[in-house]
């Protein structure tokens, strides 16, 4: 399973690396194509700017020729126009229109005289007028020649826009050129990823745009894909083999260490089991034997008094008998526990059991100068458990609370609160002692961990085991007002819970 997970992780990592390699290639190609389009656009922009300046020079030369004589030397103008068209193929027509005639008459018959006259009349002085023809495929340039101060001649140049925007060098693959006249007041949307720039001409407001049909994220070629896939596959195979060898070495070392530890633990386990059993028996019997000793000493002191109260003596002897029986019950329960026999499960009233524990620990409470009492919400919950074992748990928790408050300044209180929460019965033992340290909270229920100088560290560990035998749980925390709180949760008898819900 671990090997399969590792190989799945390596496969996913390989696919991610392969994808990143393809993305890096596409990003590099995209950047390269954008740079090539930008360079081609700037180069073509410079060429077109030079060509546009030549148009101005041609119009200026023709204007000077027309102004040389009156009437204008049409034959000479026609010869010069033919030479210009022959050397500059983008100029597809040159004409001179006499504006003094009605209607205006072209002298070279290469342009529409009405259109030329319309543009010439809108020209101020010798300013140049531009106009798109044939849907933007041709450009008309019109300039007035001021022969008599009025200028009744108009010079016209017809430019092929495709030839004007033709590049002298090959453009990047998929690139398309568009050259159009900028019309005042109209803003044209530029496509994303295109090169766009205005031609630097005062007389011919043109805009150059280069677009590309190349995809934004070009796919890598098959050769690159095959090479990248092969490299990633070899790297993944090498990593898998290295991790396999490392795992095998680690597993062999772990097995060797475990074999040595098993040999040591097998011997230590047998010794510790006997020691834990003996310590557990001693710990459990200490409580009733201490009570018997205390009651016996109290009885002896009473017997030494001449007017001994027989009722008090009878109570002391009754307590001795009760604790002796309790010690016998503990030994019986421990023996049953060791032999894995079932506990003596019966219906137990937690409130009543808590009262018995308070009675058993009355002497300890007086010695500690503390108040030990029972608090309940009147629910008197019933649970199914072994009475002696459950009493032993509450006894241990209450006695620990008395030891926690012993020697404290001010009031010393230990409270056993009994109540319900949902379908659970809850018995909480709280004290106003110093509370639990962080280390104690982390290891509180570990066997042989104790914070008492003379403690064995078995009491709480045994309490947890006993409570869990009856499907319960034992938890501890620090109280908000100070001190510690130990809570025992046990399932309530089902019939009692249903009856309470019905009421």
Automatic annotation (TrEMBL):
One of its GO terms (molecular function) is kinase activity. It is an enzyme of class 2 (transferase). SUPFAM superfamilies: ATPase domain of HSP90 chaperone/DNA topoisomerase II/histidine kinase (SSF55874), Homodimeric domain of signal transducing histidine kinase (SSF47384). The chain crosses the membrane at residues 217-239. Keywords: ATP-binding, Kinase, Membrane, Nucleotide-binding, Phosphoprotein, Transferase, Transmembrane, Transmembrane helix, Two-component regulatory system. It catalyses: ATP + protein L-histidine = ADP + protein N-phospho-L-histidine. CDD domains: HisKA (cd00082). Residues 280-494 form the Histidine kinase domain. The keyword Amino-acid biosynthesis does not apply. Its EC number is 2.7.13.3. It comes from the Bacteria. This is histidine kinase. It comes from Bosea vestrisii. The lineage of its organism: Bacteria, Pseudomonadati, Pseudomonadota, Alphaproteobacteria, Hyphomicrobiales.
